[in-house]
Amino acid sequence: MGYRVAVVGATGNVGREMLNILEEVNFPVAKIHAIASRKSIGVEVSFGDRILKCEDVEQFDFSKVDVVLMSVSGSFSKEWSPKIGAAGPIVIDNSSAWRMDPDVPLVVPEVNPDDVTWANRKNIIANPNCSTAQLVVALKPLHDRAKIKRVVVATYQSVSGAGKEGMDELWDQTKGIFVLGPSEPKKFPKQIAFNVIPFIGAFLPDGYTDEEAKMWNETHKMIDPEIKLTVTCVRVPVMVGHSEAVNIEFAEPLDEDEARDILREAPGLIVVDKREPTGYVTPKEVQGEFPVYVSRIRNDPTVEHGLSMWVVADNLRKGAALNAVQIAQLLHERGLLRQTTAA
Fold it and tell me: Is residue 342 part of a domain?
């Protein structure tokens, strides 16, 4: 017995990863549908050793599936997620469209699993921003122990966070600099090859970007609205894998040794922290991996109760596709997914 599953946006980077991970974790799938826009009808994507042909979202009958994984734009999700949820299945949406809706749970299973119990308000569950997802997995066990007062984060976000166009631009510019001559930036506002760009998203009136605002708003919703959080989001010339330099101030004493032990025992985390030239992780090493990795855990002597650490994860996996599949697994484990009998 299994579920009828649809992946909407199946031709994109994250949609393809959703299909890969559903197969990798042996999610109980009775039938799988790859759904895309009309222009992608018939495009082939893989699910394990099977080839699926994409179906048209506008013609598909969503009442015949149990769970829908969405990897689409916010505007597309705003239009389609309520329609799909009204047809019966639970929608797990990767866009930013529903994250701050008070009637939609925003879930990272290692952080706030109980929030899935009120998904029936709209039949929609939101996935957080890719940088937020890995951050809260690392913050939650520490907050439970010593109550976090303030966090300062600098992100180092890979180009895959901007989709296939971002990856292509880094590749083309890198080749161009060595072979063909420089090319004008298209996806990013400035050259990304051999450069870093301290700007992701759109500027807000206070000088922060909406990408930065997502991180504190989503952390407040999932962990604690009292945590003070300031962020600088930076795009870096890395294909896959987001990194974060994280500085934390606690309300109570918590030294690096105890923090290391807490993080080692926490779900979804792996600590790699040796004080030697290779005793830490980089985004290259976590590509294709499920966990969030934490390195360089150390006391911060500039505040009364402070720690600094380095947090890395595959943004296409834990930052997006994996988290969505883990939410589906959580719903399955708690008996919160219906199973249709329609063909």
Answer: no
Residue 57 half-sphere exposure, CB side, CA atoms within 13 Å? 23
Residue span of the structural domain in which 105 resides: 3-128+321-333
Asked about 54 being catalytic, the answer comes back as no
Supply the mean pLDDT for the chain. Answer: 96
Q: What is the number of structural domains in the chain?
A: 2
The CATH number linked to 107 is: 3.40.50.720
Q: Determine which one of 130, 143, 233, 305 is catalytic.
A: 130
User: Which DSSP string do the residues of 178-242 spell out, in sequence order?
Assistant: III-----SSSSS--TT--BS--S-B-TTS-BHHHHHHHHHHHHHT-TT-EEEEE--B-S-SS-E
pTM for the model stands at 0.95
Q: Which residues of 324-341 are buried (b: 16+ CB within 10 A; e: fewer)?
A: bbbbbbbbbeeeebeeee
Q: What pLDDT score does 180 carry?
A: 72
- Within 13 Å, how many C-alpha atoms sit on residue 235's CB side? 25
Same domain as 244, residue 151 = yes
88 and 69 together in one domain: yes
Indicate whether 154 and 296 sit together in one domain. yes
Cα 135 to Cα 310: distance, rounded to the nearest angstrom: 10
Give the pLDDT of residue 181. Answer: 73
Active-site annotation holds for 242: yes
Annotated active-site residue in 33, 143, 242, 305:
242
